[in-house]
Amino acid sequence: MDKIEDNVGKVNPWLLSAPVLMAVFIFALNETISNVALVNIAGALSISINESTWIITSYLMASGIAIALVGFLTKLFGRKVLFISCVILFTVSSLMCAISNSMFMIVISRFLQGMGGGALLPLGQAIIMEAFPPNARQKAMAVFGLVFIFAPVIGPILGGWITENWSWQWIFLINIPLGMLCAMWLNKNLFDPPYARKQKNVKIDYAGMVFLSLWLISMQIVLDKGNDADWFGSTWICYMSTFSLICAIIFFISQFKVKEPLLNLRILKDGTYFWGTFIQVILMAVFLASASLLPSMLQNLMGYTSFLSGLSMGARGCGNLLALFLYFVISRKLGDRRITAIGLFCLGLGSWYFGMINLEINLSTIALPNIFYGMGIFFSLTPLIPLSCARIDNKDLTNASSLQNLLKNTGGAIGTSISTTMIARFSQVHQMMMTNHLNFSNEFYNAKLEAMTGQFIAQGSDYITAVNKAGGAIYGELVKQAHLWGYVETFRYFAFATFILIPLLLLIKKPKVLK
After folding, report:
1. Which residue, 50, 277, 431, 496, could crosslink 482 as a Cys pair with Cβ 3.0–4.6 Å?
2. Per-residue pLDDT for 451 more than 60?
3. Within its chain, how far is the Cα of 286 from the centroid?
4. In terms of C-beta distances under 8 Å and separation of at least 24 residues, what long-range contacts does 160-163 make, across chains too?
5. Are 481 and 359 in contact (CB under 8 A)?
6. Res 38 pLDDT > 80
7. Quick one: pLDDT band at residue 105, thresholds 50, 70, 90?
């Protein structure tokens, strides 16, 4: 490992970490805080719900591009200037989001917000890992992991409460004082080590930038709109997918050929880094997909409000806090790989628990698996991030962090999209299977139909109308149960995907003991 320079000694690492963590927090918070406010924003801007999803899509597109450009921009401007500039851009674009009066303006504003915020995560991760000596990084990354994981969890809760009690504009306005404070604090305390300072004669990889942007933008459009367009049953999805694949192939080939690439992919030759990153990608796919599916299920099948559906995710935050306290107790006794295995088991257990739900559940029933989710993602990511980068030199940490976060961001987007399709397909299969039982040769169906017909007749309907109402009510319940089974099957696959990751931890080498 390279010698820890400049940040350590000039300023207390915890004092430096505070504004960095604040910046990471507001970025991660804004990934989910607007999800529950889309209906309100759509109404205020006179756009459809389907169109309003571009508010989320544009943010994800921009953050993915920004993450990949971090290494290059650090050489061009220096890490301190880049980090503070990104905080300022994020803050200004948050104000633009709040004052937006058209779909075009808010989509552009969210894109700029994503460009500013996307770089904060890999830069923050690298700064904190470098600021602490190797024997103290474990605690530092535990706090970093808590902030990064906890912020998206409370996003829907905070967004739902603000939207219902104030207005949707305030979900963006709350970023402004935090951003201003963060920028001033960083300007005073942040220092660049020699390898993170502005460099002369930096060559710009124009081809890499163009094909990276085209790949990520086209991929995000496919993932966001694919399910609505029937995936490869749609001609334009086929063309867009082919275009995205070609751009991705050209980008990755170019990164191996140029001397100064945007992302140094040769770092993937390190087996510990490769497998650690691979596990994190699958973890983020499961975690972010479940965070998207659960509120949707509660609102669509059980009639929860946006605030209550967001509140259901609060138990994950409790799981995060519980895991934080336990982590400091067991980290020295068990080691990183065993703690990661415990986290994967908890995450799989939470998914399996959700794979046994029914429509009679309440918020307290939902709390237990969400606590497992919160504990699982914390126990998994907190030791895995520094463990995967344990053999990476300090001068390469920014590149390693950028590549890792780009792949995790991509994995989360793919996981969310695939899970949406899985629910639709599983629901169709179960609906077809259940419909086969709605016939007059089924004595249970006849008994239910007769009982409900009697209820409608008692309410004043004639016999023919009552029979039709009874049949419609039974079919409506069947559709709800079919959709429920779509969620159940999907969560069970999440459990399977998580459990099979545990043996892969054996491929991650233990780090060298550093003092």
Report:
1. 431
2. yes
3. 9
4. 160/36, 160/37, 160/305, 160/306, 160/307, 160/308, 160/309, 160/310, 160/311, 161/307, 161/310, 162/37, 163/36, 163/37, 163/40, 163/306, 163/307
5. yes
6. no
7. very high
DSSP label at 436? T
Instruction: Please state the pTM of the whole predicted model.
Output: 0.79
Exposed e or buried b for every residue in 72-82, given b needs 16+ CB within 10 A?
A: bbbbebebbbb
Token code pair at residue 136: 């103290």
Rg (CA), the chain: 25
How far apart are alpha carbons 463 and 337 in whole angstroms? Answer: 67
CB contact at 8 A, 166 and 78: no
In the chain, the N- to C-terminal Cα span, in Å, equals 11
Residue 256 burial by Cβ neighbours in a 10 Å radius (0-12, 13-18, 19+)? exposed
Task: For residue 422, give the nearest of 480, 349, 359, 491 by alpha carbon.
Answer: 491
Q: At what angle do helices 271-302 and 363-388 cross, to 10 degrees?
A: 160
Task: For residue 269, give both structure tokens.
Answer: 């030759």
pLDDT value, residue 11: 66
Phi, psi (5° rounding) for residue 197?
-85, 165
What is the three-class DSSP state of 514? coil
pLDDT over 60 at 480, yes or no: yes
